């Protein structure tokens, strides 16, 4: 086979990646495009291609009103199958935002084995790293998983969400099953994650199983530019703040 010449932007991407490792620190703002293009002796169009590739790989972040900055190490998302814990436990790093009774999407209702018009508790949570939103979660919990909520007057809000999670933890968790897929940010996800609609995201779906059936379903949407997947049974989500780089 003939050797295909390396595109100029890809060679520049390699040079820029090495410069990020040796000359810049996490959060540092890069020089503007004109100065970078002059430094490396390339056209600005070539530079933009290289920067876009590094942004896609999670090495750079483009922040409105700030510029292009060096991204922190990606968050490690464990997709192992070991039993962990219910959402909302003492070591849970998610922030609880809201809860409401809603009719879930048809696919969720099928997984939960609820009627198509039956409302479930929908708990909204977020995950933040270094002050930046990196994930948004919708946690679907059917009524049969949390039957003793009669003492909670609030129909929605943070107090209701915490009460639902406390009640859920009364069940004995048998196991959890995870699935991961690459997707595109919907408008509401993009707004919460400070991304543009259609930006690449990782969607991690987790089934929490108790009493032989799905007691809760988590649909967590992670920014693809800040997360990496880890496989095995080592535990839950870990955030890596060290200077080391990870293959993604």
UniProtKB/TrEMBL annotation:
* PROSITE patterns from the UniProt entry: HTH_GNTR
Print the keywords alphabetically.
DNA-binding, Transcription, Transcription regulation
Protein name as it appears in the record: GntR family transcriptional regulator
Q: Which InterPro entries match?
A: Bact_HTH_transcr_reg (IPR050679), Chorismate_lyase_/UTRA_dom_sf (IPR028978), Tscrpt_reg_HTH_GntR (IPR000524), UTRA (IPR011663), WH-like_DNA-bd_sf (IPR036388), WH_DNA-bd_sf (IPR036390)
- In this protein, which residues make up the domain named HTH gntR-type? 6-73
Task: Give the organism, scientific name.
Answer: Streptomyces caelestis
Biological process (GO) annotations held by this record are: negative regulation of DNA-templated transcription
Q: Note one Pfam family from the annotation.
A: UTRA
Q: Name one GO molecular function term.
A: DNA binding
**Could you tell me which PANTHER family the record lists for this protein?**
GNTR-FAMILY TRANSCRIPTIONAL REGULATOR (PTHR44846:SF17), MANNOSYL-D-GLYCERATE TRANSPORT/METABOLISM SYSTEM REPRESSOR MNGR-RELATED (PTHR44846)
